[in-house]
Amino acid sequence: MKSVAKVWDEAEQRLAEGDAAFLADLGKALAKQYGSAVPQMWQYRSVFDRVLRLLTTTPGVGHIEHAVRLVASATSVAPKQARYAASLLASGQDPDQLGTVFVGGSARVSGVEELRACLLQELILRGLQVSALPDIARWAGSSHWNHHPLRWLPLSLSEVEARPPLPSYTLGGSSYELPSSEMDSPTKPSHQDAKVPAVVETTSDPGMSALPSAVANWAAESNGRFEARIFDLAGDLGAPAVASLLRVLDLECLTGLGARNGFTVSAVRPERAWRTLFAAASAGGAYNHGEYGAYGRLATWRSLGAASGSAEGASFDTVENDVKNTDWYGFSADSVWFEHVAWDIGLVAVSSRRRLAVLAATDTD
């Protein structure tokens, strides 16, 4: 088909007539016939997304139940489908009615444990008090997802996560916040010959592979790249000397940066660092959709934990405490490495353990 507009119209008309089951059946049939194709036809992607959005953004328990049935049939051929659907449901449906997703084990809801785990986190990101909804609270406290990676995250927002940037969906599109390069209190870097401690690079240490978790999707699925480095410091590093040290670390992201190039470093609060990385992880870069809210939250904390020196396998409370006790800085540079479009990140973490972490990322359309 050169245009799928008529299929869209048919689906919308059926839904308006109260036949939500038709949409789920159509989507299931499409997923079975075309979902496993590589590459997937644009016609399939377009119609499936339209059907899913119609069911998830149109309020009503019946629509939710058929959306769950649809997602259960498609998750096997599109692993991120559950993450996407959970974000849509949390954004478009009344939380009081989403308890139906967490009830029962009939054919209608079987195979959706991943959707449930993601939806729980999406609702928490939107301020849900889990204890206020018995069906959701019961599942959240059950053994069904004991070994799920999202189980590590708390069932309420932490102080650092005060204002998560979340997407807004409509039937035809979505909007989201770009990772912000805004700094809390921009200052000019200190003089280049400011006293800095000796450093030893320890990037290859076990556990440091988690540092780029929040921005890895930019490189894997879009046009992005990142630099993630760890250094041990021989002495304390004061705020005025951070910029001076960055200049002598031979960072790729500062390639070609001369004395007269724009280079700004300033202290930022942990909340700013979290918000920047969450936007990068959950919404993605120029040509991808990221990890969505649930796994975006997890990836963000993995990056922050590695940056602040948390031990691998540490509890959430330990990681959060480490993040709060780390000095965070944002930086921007007119270097050739950064694309200077809309997706540029520069973060530095200096922990009390005398270690410094650098995480930079850039992407372009």
Explain this structure to me?
This protein is an alpha+beta fold and 365 residues long. Helices cover 39% and strands 13% of the residues. It has twelve helices and eight strands. The protein has a six-stranded antiparallel sheet. A hairpin with a 3-residue loop joins strand 7 and strand 8. The longest helix has 17 residues, at 292-308. The two termini are 28 Å apart.
SSE blueprint:
Elements (H helix, E strand, L loop, with lengths): L4 H12 L3 H15 L7 H16 L3 H14 L6 H12 L20 H13 L8 H7 L27 E2 L4 E2 L23 E3 L14 H6 L3 E9 L8 H6 L15 E6 L1 H14 L8 H17 L7 H9 L2 E7 L9 E9 L3 E9 L2
Antiparallel strand pairs: 1-2, 3-4, 4-8, 5-6, 6-7, 7-8
Helix pairs in contact: 1-2, 1-3, 2-3, 2-4, 3-4, 3-5, 4-5, 5-6, 6-11, 10-11, 11-12
